[in-house]
Specification:
Elements: H1 4-16, H2 21-34, H3 38-49, E1 61-63, E2 65-72, E3 76-81, H4 90-97, E4 98-100, H5 105-113, E5 120-124, H6 130-134, E6 140-149, H7 150-171, H8 179-185, E7 190-193, E8 196-199, E9 212-214, H9 222-239, H10 245-258, H11 265-274, H12 283-288, H13 291-300
Parallel strand pairs: 8-9
Antiparallel strand pairs: 1-4, 2-3, 2-6, 5-6, 7-8
Helix pairs in contact: 1-2, 2-3, 5-7, 9-10, 9-13, 10-11
């Protein structure tokens, strides 16, 4: 007989330890099937197989930029950012301003892993859409693609994890699972090497006569705090012409967290990762000013 409690704890352990989301969903599929939870089973199946022929969930729809390659006689080919708002047809305008990810979650994971050095993920625009853009372009459209930042796309994976955690919390009382105790008693790896002791978890390590190389791995040290503030100030300057209340809120959250005695890396990382999604519609202009590289520098410090 299937041990629901053990399987649920195993799923949570994989989520905590950043296991492959597609692998976690396979385990969740077994869990949902054995519990006869048709709603969860349907969602898991679609995430694993993709949303072919139907509109995906809102978290799989990202605001994006649109770049068009245009051939102009005697001048050659130029790449331009096309302002989607100019298109009158509402359905086409919505289709081109939102990048829909219908593919299986495993492919989204691969896209994020294999993204190019420019930090963007691109998808070709259907040829039928060219006719709606050509009337505003002086030249022949050779190619067109939508693009979004890798950081924004990775939020799809975060959203799927969030749905899974919400489900596990919902069933915890039914299966007598105390996830709070499970998290506290599930120790992270402590590595001992020739250099000393490194704690890769969030607890304390007592080692008399040893050199402690790492302590709480989720706390930002003082020097990195100052560097993160400097990076945030640079980002403020770049995005200033493109006002976003969402960015203002996140920027304030980052500053508030950095003012604490022990700022949390995980919280700050999520904040920085979210920033590109606030400027997807103008991603090319802000990315060209160094937004992507600044966010990468910030995340590297966390």
């Amino acid at each position: 007989m299937l041990n629901f409690k053990e399987l649920a704890e195993n799923i949570l352990s994989d989520l905590i330890n950043n296991g492959s989301v597609s692998d976690v969903l396979l385990k969740t599929k077994i869990f949902a099937s054995q519990r006869s939870d048709d709603e969860l089973l349907g969602w898991v199946t679609k995430e694993l197989n993709g949303y072919d022929g139907e509109k995906p969930p809102r978290y799989r729809l990202l605001n994006c930029g649109l770049k068009v390659h245009v051939f102009v006689p005697f001048r050659g080919t130029a790449r331009i950012d096309f302002p989607v708002d100019m298109i009158e047809n509402e359905n086409v305008r919505d289709r081109l301003s939102n990048l829909a990810f219908h593919m299986p979650i495993a492919e989204i994971e691969r896209l994020c892993k294999d993204a190019g050095g420019d930090g963007t993920i691109k998808m070709k625009v259907p040829v039928y859409a060219y006719q709606f853009m050509s009337e505003f372009i002086n030249g022949d459209i050779q190619d067109a693609y939508q693009y979004s930042t890798t950081a924004a796309v990775s939020q799809i994976i975060v959203a799927v994890k969030s749905v899974l955690i919400d489900f596990l919390l919902k069933v915890s009382s039914e299966e007598n699972i105390n996830f709070n105790n499970f998290i506290k008693t599930n120790p992270q790896m402590i590595t001992i090497n020739n250099s000393g002791i490194m704690n890769t978890g969030s607890g304390d390590v007592n080692a008399q006569g040893a050199t402690v190389v790492g302590g709480d791995n989720n706390i930002v040290n003082e020097s990195n705090k100052q560097e993160l503030l400097r990076i945030l100030e640079e980002i403020d300057k770049i995005v200033a012409p493109h006002h976003s209340s969402d960015y203002d809120d996140v920027s304030k959250d980052i500053r508030t967290e950095l003012q604490k005695d022990k700022p949390e890396k995980k919280f700050l990382k999520r904040c920085f990762q979210a920033i590109p999604s606030f400027f997807s519609g103008v991603a090319a202009s802000v990315a060209g000013n160094g937004l992507t590289s600044l966010i990468e520098k910030a995340i590297a410090l966390l």
